[in-house]
């Protein structure tokens, strides 16, 4: 293999290592939601390709872990924080089947939500709250891996 092939391979490997950085959680994000404490994650716009001229239209939230409640059932409520500090609900999460899992980022479960127009073009702080649907929902946990605007 010549010098060109070796250089090309090194650049390709470097790009692969940098690819997940765009969807990584921002520093200070609280990625574990319980019934008593929401997860907070910053959704950042995905890098645009040359062929993409449309503004971002959805939020993609990845969930890397889930522990169902000891009794009862939960629902995840996803809210986006507006510039004035108020929040707007943009979606809900229901984990099915209702069984525990832990996944690497590449195997995370993803949930897509429409992005309201007032959030287009900038990073958005999301809050994921676990709300009991039945029972006290003690012990329930939802781990957010990342959030991205596409």
Describe this structure in words.
With 150 residues, the chain is mainly β. It has one domain (25-149): Jelly Rolls, CATH 2.60.120. Helix content is 11%, strand content 43%. Strands 1, 2, 3, 4, 5, 6, 7, 8 and 9 form a 9-stranded mixed beta sheet that branches.
Write the layout of secondary structure elements.
Elements: H1 3-18, E1 32-34, E2 39-45, E3 58-67, E4 73-81, E5 87-93, E6 101-102, E7 109-114, E8 124-134, E9 141-149
**Percentage of residues in DSSP E strands:** 35-45%
Name the CATH class: Mainly Beta
Overall spatial form: globular
Count of the domains: 1
Q: Largest sheet, if any?
A: 9 strands, mixed
Pick out the low-confidence regions: 3-24
CATH architecture identity: Sandwich
Distance between the termini: 39 Å
| Alpha-beta content class | mainly beta
């Amino acid at each position: 293999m010549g010098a060109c092939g070796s250089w090309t391979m090194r650049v390709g490997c470097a790009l692969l290592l940098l690819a997940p950085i765009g969807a990584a959680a921002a520093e200070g994000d609280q990625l574990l939601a319980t019934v008593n404490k929401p997860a907070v994650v910053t959704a950042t716009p995905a890098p645009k390709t040359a062929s993409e001229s449309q503004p971002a239209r959805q939020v993609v939230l990845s969930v890397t872990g889930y522990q169902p409640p000891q009794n009862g059932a939960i629902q995840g409520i996803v809210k986006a924080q507006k510039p004035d500090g108020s929040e707007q609900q943009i979606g809900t999460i229901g984990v099915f089947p209702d069984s525990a899992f832990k996944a690497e980022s590449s195997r995370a479960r993803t949930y897509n939500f429409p992005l309201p127009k007032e959030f287009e073009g900038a990073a958005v702080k999301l809050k994921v709250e676990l709300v009991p649907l039945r029972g006290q929902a003690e012990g329930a946990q939802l781990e957010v891996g990342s959030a991205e605007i596409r």
